[in-house]
Each structure stands twice: as structure tokens, then as C-alpha cells.
Design goal:
The protein is mainly α. It has helices spanning 24-49, 73-82, 94-103; strands at residues 58-60, 86-88. A two-stranded parallel sheet has the order 1-2.
């Protein structure tokens, strides 16, 4: 959650798995699905407490046009948009890039 001029807050969940996800595509889909799950749980409550026109809810996805994830952009953006949220990708997904770099 980013509040311009007032900082930001993100939600991070450590998931223990016996097997590491070997395929980047699976990792990106999993991360996107988890972001959608959190947003679907939180956003309805947040919308009840704020002026809806004042805020735009975005999900920042760690994919971009220059790296190995470039072929996935349309797919994961479609997942996010199809669930009623605005998707941001690199270079505009500063939230995903910052958090991913911090925790990986």
C-alpha cells in the first residue's frame, strides 16, 4: 500500500516448500496468484473505509519487456485485470521490483 508522501507498506508471506520451483513461469504465476488472493481479501474492507475515487488499487507484477519474463506479460496482466485490478509491469512495477530484490 503506497500513500504518496506518506510511505508505503507491503505484505510478504514466506512459503516453505519441499521443492524449489524450478520454472520461472511457475514462480511468476504463483506470485501473481498470491498477490491476487491478498488483494481480494483486503481491498473490499479498505474500500469501505476510504473514498473510492481517491485511490487506485494496483498489483505490481515482477515481469518486464527486457528480461526472461517478457513472454508472460500479457498472460499475467490478463490474470490481474480479469480480477478487477490494475496491473503494473516493469519498469512501472517499482513495488514488485523493490520487494523482490529485498527478499530474494
Amino acid at each position: 500500500i503506497h500513500r504518496a508522501g506518506r510511505g508505503a507498506r507491503y505484505f510478504w508471506k514466506k512459503v516453505k516448500k519441499d521443492v524449489k520451483v524450478p520454472v520461472l513461469r511457475d514462480k511468476i504465476y504463483t506470485e501473481t496468484a498470491m498477490s491476487l488472493e491478498v488483494a481480494q481479501d483486503m481491498v473490499p474492507d479498505i474500500r469501505k473505509k476510504i473514498t473510492p475515487a481517491k485511490y487506485d488499487f494496483e498489483i505490481h507484477i515482477d515481469v518486464g519487456p527486457l528480461g526472461p519474463t517478457r513472454d508472460m506479460i500479457r498472460e499475467v496482466v490478463g490474470m490481474v485485470n480479469g480480477n478487477g485490478f490494475t496491473a503494473k509491469t516493469k519498469p512501472d512495477s517499482w513495488g514488485a521490483s523493490s520487494v523482490a530484490d529485498k527478499h530474494t
